[in-house]
């Protein structure tokens, strides 16, 4: 079986610099958005989708130079990030001041639904974070904090209620019958929680070196009903290291995705193999027996995302 079409190489990722409403806003205008698997939540027709086959979840990425930030937003379904490179500050709340956490390479953050969140590269070089969004339609788009929409309009970008962007600098206007995206009311905003850092970290952030220690004999369940970060958002996330990798081939009844974060990995299946490097993404079809093992000496870690039969929705409170 030829699976070359199922692999997206880091060096072949095609960015979109006009994906979201803050694409012209100073401080956010150098972002690059990548839609790797699934339709994603981009508001721009310029967004390239690398693999459009439904998986039950979406895989994307954000690349940003130092001091560039992604504006405050929310989704109806789960949003989880792991850091591929760089040093990142995540912040949340109505004004982005309720709490914050700094993540290093390999760390993962399963962000609670129902709160505005943003992030910025606070490192010294271009950085990349990989994203997992629940559901095939990723929850129907993005909800922006009101001030983000207002500031974007000052710089020429208007978001229609149809979820599409219109650039007034290019003489684009809202089509007849399409109104601007309405701002959330003060009543709606007042219902949103403002969790502190101390409230969020224990149940939503897992550190790379903690997971390395926990994956010394078997893959570490990171996101799942029994995971470190207990959630059932329509997918599960496992963390695998050299110590917990197995050459025994096995299959899942659901689609899965392999995403190395450290080292090179060899993926074998009956009729072929592939070598994956950090930043590469491989879609594994449901029912395909395969194995993933480090192909070189040295540090090696990989995230595996697998669809589940749980409905994609708000962060699980079970």
From TrEMBL:
InterPro entries: Cupin_2, RmlC-like_jellyroll, RmlC_Cupin_sf
Name recorded for this polypeptide: Cupin
Cupin type-2 domain boundaries: 66-129
Species this chain originates from: Marinibacterium profundimaris
